[in-house]
Task: inverse folding
């Protein structure tokens, strides 16, 4: 079983376990999403968002004690004003212990989190309408919260060099971390180099198996967001870094464990998790680029930005990052603000002289 198949199987079990506590119509909705081949990550997020909505109903409707008590009649009776109340509830409600609204997705109930929850509710009601279960979609008539965009951290070319140089030597870590890191130095360096040099997602990186690497063609196969396969090109340096790690540090492996990156803990040496990779990036990021909070996605954003600065080709960046929608590429990964400022300043100087 591949990493993706195993991951989906685990998520599917979690989803159907949580559905036992929810209205029966939710099970039909999830089956509908599965028929549309929505990713299990997406479906899992929908389930948690609906749980938050049902929690709101249990608080504000005395007839509802459990999620199972939410009937079709109750769902069909809700109006846009009720959904607006739900949006306000997400940021204002506190229980008797002073606790805020629980967020199973752990993404928070800021503007972006509320917008996502509203979108999930709109999708749920759309399904109810096309299935002739309800007569309206009250969530569709409620405006989405305005999201104030913040410039998220990304590395520039010099910072990429500092990060990778520090990881290659391991000297940037304190004595305690350095002693442990010596056992995984080649692995950690390979992880940082692959994330920095390809812009792949951390979920794509942990899913790589040894068999996914074509050494002759210098390409690596990854499973993109949504489940599609894609080939990413490797340069000579990345090939050498990966081969060094496999030959000198990963060494022997059981045929049943084909993951490229393995945990150093325990005797089983299981596939490295997303959280483990995040910790590795954070560890070296704090030691080399201390002024920025570095995550795997910071490396992805930095890769996209640097590629655009070099090529000025947004379609190339879209293809390299594996985006299905070029708007996502342009909005989140193209940061050419410094270059734009320089051009505006140059134009202004020429104009007044």
Result:
């Amino acid at each position: 079983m591949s990493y993706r198949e195993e991951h989906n199987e685990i998520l599917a079990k979690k989803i159907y376990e949580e559905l036992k506590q929810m209205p029966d119509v939710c099970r039909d909705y999830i089956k509908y999403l599965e028929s549309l081949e929505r990713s299990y990550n997406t479906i899992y997020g929908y389930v948690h968002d609906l749980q938050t909505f049902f929690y709101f109903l249990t608080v504000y409707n005395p007839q509802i004690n459990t999620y199972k008590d939410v009937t079709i009649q109750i769902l069909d009776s809700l109006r846009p004003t009720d959904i607006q109340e739900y949006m306000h509830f997400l940021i204002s409600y506190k229980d008797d212990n002073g606790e805020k609204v629980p967020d199973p997705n752990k993404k928070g109930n800021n503007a972006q989190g509320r917008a996502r929850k509203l979108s999930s509710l709109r999708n749920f009601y759309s399904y109810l309408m096309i299935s002739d279960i309800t007569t309206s979609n009250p969530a569709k008539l409620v405006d989405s919260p305005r999201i104030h965009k913040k410039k998220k951290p990304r590395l520039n070319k010099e910072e990429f060099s500092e990060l990778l140089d520090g990881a290659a030597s391991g000297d940037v870590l304190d004595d305690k971390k350095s002693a442990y890191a010596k056992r995984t130095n080649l692995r950690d360096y390979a992880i940082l180099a692959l994330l920095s040099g390809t812009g792949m997602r951390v979920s794509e990186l942990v899913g790589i198996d040894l068999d996914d690497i074509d050494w002759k063609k210098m390409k690596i196969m990854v499973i993109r967001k949504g489940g599609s396969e894609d080939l990413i090109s490797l340069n000579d340096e990345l090939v050498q870094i990966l081969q060094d790690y496999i030959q000198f540090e990963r060494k022997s492996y059981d045929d049943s464990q084909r993951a490229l990156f393995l945990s150093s803990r325990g005797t089983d040496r299981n596939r490295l998790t997303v959280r483990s990779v995040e910790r590795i990036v954070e560890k070296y990021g704090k030691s080399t680029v201390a002024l920025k909070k570095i995550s795997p996605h910071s490396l992805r954003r930095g890769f996209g930005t640097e590629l655009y600065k070099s090529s000025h080709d947004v379609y190339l960046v879209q293809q390299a990052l594996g985006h299905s929608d070029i708007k996502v590429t342009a909005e989140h990964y193209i940061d050419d603000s410094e270059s734009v400022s320089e051009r505006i300043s140059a134009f202004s100087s020429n104009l007044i002289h």
Remarks:
- The radius of gyration is 24 Å.
- The longest strand covers residues 219-223.
- The chain has a mean pLDDT of 87.
- The chain is about 60% helix and 5% strand.
